[in-house]
Amino acid sequence: MNMRIAVASEGNAVTGHFGHCTNFNLYDTENGAVVREESVPNPGHRPGFLPNFLADRGVNVIISGGMGGGAVDIFNERNVEVVVGASGDAKEAVLSYLKGELKSTGSVCHEHQHHGDCNG
């Protein structure tokens, strides 16, 4: 499966807070391997902007150290998987995710009809 994975970063390290990162590292993956990388500067933190900015760029998964509930909700609405609780090297986090080793430590809803059942 081909995916585009974004990592909220400070340079090449996963940032602790999504909205205040310096840049987003974008990784295009095919069959569990990274085939293309690019870094995009954070265009600026304003409510609701960044999740749509990334979704519009074709991102399927966002990896970050932490993220506010508002951003999580927008990513979920845009069918972007949210993985929080990551740290260390951005590319290593992506490779761990591809191997199934990096799982979100946050509560993320994929079932919109059960939205009320989720704990934030």
Automatic annotation (TrEMBL):
Q: Which residues form the Dinitrogenase iron-molybdenum cofactor biosynthesis domain?
A: 11-98
* Family annotation (CDD domains): MTH1175
- Highest taxon of the lineage: Bacteria
* Pfam families assigned to the protein according to its UniProt record, in alphabetical order: Nitro_FeMo-Co
Q: Which residues cross the membrane?
A: none
What InterPro entries has UniProt attached to this entry? Di-Nase_FeMo-co_biosynth, DiNase_FeMo-co_biosyn_sf, MTH1175_dom
Q: What name does this protein carry? A: Predicted Fe-Mo cluster-binding protein, NifX family
- Source organism per entry reads Papillibacter cinnamivorans DSM 12816
